[in-house]
Amino acid sequence: xxxxxxxxxxxxxxxxxxxxxPSINWTTISRIMNRxxxxxxxxxxxxxxxxxxxxxxxxxxxxxxIEKVVEAKxxxxxxxxxxxxxxxxxKELNRDPELVLHRWNNKLSKIKSxxxxxxxxx
Length: 122
Fold this sequence. Notes:
Elements lengths: L7 H12 L6 H8 L3 H13 L9 H16 L8 H11 L3 H10 L9 H5 L2
């Protein structure tokens, strides 16, 4: 039951603990917090979701996502992108990284040119 809910003080501790680390290692943080990885991640996502931009993506945001993905694919031997890319893009756009990935998979990866961005707005 302890892992299901973090107290307010635990939430503040989690915020401070995560802020001190440039890259989040949930195993280490969960040990510090004496909670499960999942519990810490869920609370962190909840904290971040309050700050993330919501609503429709702008043409500029879509272009930024496409540009970053194309650049990342050029810089890898396999042509695949890693999870860190979505986190990075999410930070730049102040959006949830999972929703940025969702945007890419369901809309942007299917376009043939940047002009198609205007056509797909719905």
